[in-house]
Amino acid sequence: MNEFELFDQFFEDKGPEDLQRFVDKNVDIVHQVIQLLRDKGWSQSDLARKMGKSDAEVSKWLSGTHNLTLRSIARLETALEADIILTPLKAEEKFVVTKWRAEYPDRAQVQQVVWQTPGEKSHFPTHPGIQAA
User: Fold this and answer.
1) What is the rounded CA–CA span in Å between residue 96 and residue 115?
2) Residue 97 forms beta bridges with which residues?
3) Which CA distances in Å does 43 have to 32, 37, 55?
4) What is the pLDDT of residue 86?
5) Of the residues 49, 65, 85, which one is the last residue of a structural domain?
6) How does pLDDT run across 37-74, given as a tens digit for each residue?
7) DSSP secondary structure of 73-103
8) How confident is the model at residue 52, as a pLDDT?
9) 80 and 93 assigned to the same domain
10) Which residues pair with 111 in a beta bridge?
11) CA-CA distances (angstroms) from residue 88 to 11, 73, 94, 120, 133?
12) Residue 121 sits in which domain range?
């Protein structure tokens, strides 16, 4: 097997499912933090300053390859004043789940689940064929 075949094989092999879940969740957490930074108009340096950490440490955390602990995630949530991860039970407490479906004569039925905070304006489309599921 030559170098190129080994390289191709490396990217084709997925590895254990738990490792794939770890990578997916880590990337999701990093994306959530980056979105929260954007929403606040903060840079990574601003976050580092708020947390009393070095720019290099926060950069390492947000690289997507660092093994974030629950403690470091809790510190990030505290600094950002926002949830980064929610368990399904906490999500049910925090959000109202509304299901809706739309039926169109010339198309398949469309269904969607909408998560919103209690009291938040509904995001339901307005159309005569749409009803709560």
Assistant:
1) 6
2) 115
3) 14, 6, 10
4) 87
5) 85
6) 999 999 999 999 999 999 999 999 998 888 899 999 99
7) HHHHHHHHTS-S---HHHHHHH-EEEEEEE-
8) 96
9) no
10) 101
11) 32, 17, 10, 20, 21
12) 89-132
- Spell out a b/e string for 33-70, using b for 16 or more CB atoms within 10 Å of the CB, else e: beebbeeeebebeebbebbebeeeebeebbeeeeebee
Please tell me which residue, 132 or 63, carries the higher pLDDT value.
Answer: 63
Cα(10)–Cα(5) distance, rounded to whole angstroms? 9
Q: H helices within the chain, ranges in order? A: 3-12, 17-40, 44-51, 55-61, 70-80, 88-94
Cβ atoms 103, 129 nearer than 8 A:
yes
* Number of compact structural domains in the chain: 2
Q: Is the same domain home to 10 and 74?
A: yes
For residues 2 and 13, what is the distance between their CA atoms, to the nearest angstrom? 17
Residues 48 and 93 in one domain: no
Cα–Cα nearest to 44, from 55, 52, 36, 35: 55
Q: What pTM does this model have?
A: 0.63
Q: How many CA atoms lie within 13 A of 99 on its CB side?
A: 3
